[in-house]
Request: fold
Amino acid sequence: MELFILRHGEAGQRLSSNPSDRQRSLTATGKVEVMEVAKALKKFGTKFDLIASSPLKRAYETANIVATVFKMPKKLQTWNELSPEGVRTEVYRKICRLRQEYSILLVGHEPQLSDMVNDIIHANKSKSAKIILRKAGLVRIRIVTCNPSLNGELRWLLTPKILTSK
Reply:
């Protein structure tokens, strides 16, 4: 299984007057950046069988842009487990229930996504090695096994700038 993990693009400012930022949208810059990342992935020949997004607006907008570029809006799912308060082990269970030949894109938030990457590739066992995912940054992991836990090998860690450089 190929697992791609994409952090949502740049979003509007978090307002202290709004205690819930679930409806915070991507900025115009964020939308353009995600569009460029999606087009670059398509140009690389990347394919997805499924796109799963956090239900928060900025993540869903990010996932929807990718789904549109890849012409696969019907393959876009919302997973509550990818929300900031979601439980990583539940995401892992969902991943492991999917077909092993699938290529999956997850779209969500920090720090959950970096924690997931570090769990899956076991980078968290070393205090000095920790992967941090920047906005619109992408990770590709080859899942090696689901039992007894989700384990994988890091294939890519790319920033939007690297993805979209010509």
User: Anything to note?
Assistant: The chain has a mean pLDDT of 90. The first strand starts at residue 2 and ends at 7. The first helix runs from residue 28 to 43.
